[in-house]
Amino acid sequence: MDSCFSLADTAFAYACNSQGLAAVASAASIDFLRPAFVGELLTATARVKQQGKLTGVYDIEIVNQQQKVVALFRGKSHRIGGTITGEV
């Protein structure tokens, strides 16, 4: 189940920083709805529920290859100022 949280957290990070404004997580929770097995293909889809000037709420759904929901993640973000350039 750690892989589900990591996948969801990564999707959340991409989503809350996708507008090029630097943001960090202020909260995160996950509900595991069914087991995820080793070797199973998991897909995370992030949706913006609310994005204000500084704070945002994002829902991430993780499904397996049969499109069955494995976990639901909710992340809350806080913009910290600055921009994301995409350069490493």
TrEMBL record:
- Domain Thioesterase span(s) in chain numbering: 5-71
UniProt xrefs under InterPro entries: Acyl-CoA_thioesterase_PaaI (IPR052723), HotDog_dom_sf (IPR029069), PAAI_dom (IPR003736), Thioestr_dom (IPR006683)
Q: What class of enzyme is it?
A: hydrolase
| Any matching Pfam family | 4HBT
Enzyme Commission designation: 3.1.2.-
Q: What GO molecular function annotations does the UniProt record carry, in alphabetical order?
A: acyl-CoA hydrolase activity
List the protein's name.
Phenylacetic acid degradation protein PaaD
Source organism per UniProt: Klebsiella grimontii
